[in-house]
Specification:
Layout lengths: L1 H28 L5 H21 L10 H27 L2 H8 L1 H13 L7 H20 L5 H20 L2 H11 L7 H4 L1 H6 L7 H27 L2 H22 L6 H26 L1
Helix pairs in contact: 1-3, 1-11, 1-12, 2-11, 3-7, 3-8, 4-13, 5-6, 5-7, 6-13, 12-13
Length: 290
């Protein structure tokens, strides 16, 4: 029924917003900039919840064959890189700027699609939306009053992982298989220096820090379930609408939760980018009706 879809969409939006806010709080406000350990903790909690859900029959789980695991390995590694680079970027960049840069994945995907399928007819509305998104992403670093080179560099890495994931594997598949394969990254913790630095982290014994990490892991799991549920009941176009609405909600509320230094030029970049995304979502809907 239609009202059930709306409830699922609203639940997805709520978990989406709270999840980003929680991650931003731990990584930026508490300044726990050790995503390898942070992600490892999320992996542990997520795997435990996934196994528990399968035990009670809340989610369907089947035995993973060796060939299936090998075929999912590239997507899983990209998913790990996506989360790691995204966490690094989010710790340095405000949420509205992060989403503005993240929108650039639409531009890269559009270019790849045009190169692969040159016979496809150009939709002018989609082209205009892509130009809006591209111009916003190019101009944002020039007008960001708190420009952080490392944050934008990690954002580029996050963008490349997102685009590659969208083109070689489904995000849903990667989200499920990342938990059994993700812990292999912990072997490289000493090489990244995260373990040594984390042991000296001032708030490691903080009650707030522990609650934030637990909440982040739980919300990440719930977001995965909500995403799977929403995708199974809606078309990709309608799913894109809920993603867009969730991002707008997160950006609108973030100035009330976190300190942000934003000038008129950077605000124009953010607004232009998401106007472009709105046009892109509408063009997908229009092409389906056509």
């Amino acid at each position: 029924m239609q009202w059930r879809r709306h409830i699922t969409g609203l639940a997805f939006s709520f978990v989406f917003v709270v999840s980003y806010f929680t991650n931003k709080f731990v990584l930026s406000v508490l300044k726990f900039t050790y995503p390898t350990l942070f992600q490892g903790w999320q992996t542990f909690i997520g795997a435990a919840l996934l196994l528990l859900s399968g035990k009670f029959g809340w989610v369907e789980m089947s035995r993973i064959t060796r060939s299936a695991a090998l075929s999912w390995l590239p997507g899983s590694l990209l998913f790990v890189g996506n989360i790691y680079a995204g966490s690094r970027a989010l710790s340095h960049i405000d949420i509205p700027f992060f989403f503005t840069l993240q929108n650039s994945s639409h531009v890269v995907s559009y270019i790849i699609l045009k190169v692969v399928n040159r016979q496809e007819k150009t939709q002018w509305l989609k082209l205009i939306s892509i130009c809006f998104i591209l111009l916003s992403a190019i101009n944002l670093p020039l007008h960001d009053p708190q420009f952080d080179y490392s944050g934008y560099l990690w954002a580029v890495g996050h963008l490349l992982c997102v685009v590659t994931l969208n083109n070689i594997a489904s995000t849903t598949c990667s989200a499920y298989c990342c938990w059994p394969l993700q812990p292999t990254q912990q072997i490289f913790v000493p090489l990244t220096g995260d373990l040594t630095g984390a042991l000296e982290f001032p708030s490691l014994q903080s009650y707030t820090f522990h609650c934030g990490c637990c909440a982040s892991a739980l919300l990440g799991f719930l977001l995965m379930l909500a995403t799977v549920k929403l995708k199974s009941g809606l078309s990709l176009e309608h799913f894109g609408v809920w993603i867009f609405l969730s991002k707008i909600t997160a950006m609108s509320l973030s100035p009330f939760i976190f300190y942000m230094d934003m000038n008129a030029s950077s605000l124009i970049c953010v607004v232009t980018s998401h106007v472009g995304e709105a046009l892109l979502v509408y063009s997908h809907r229009d092409s389906q009706l056509g």
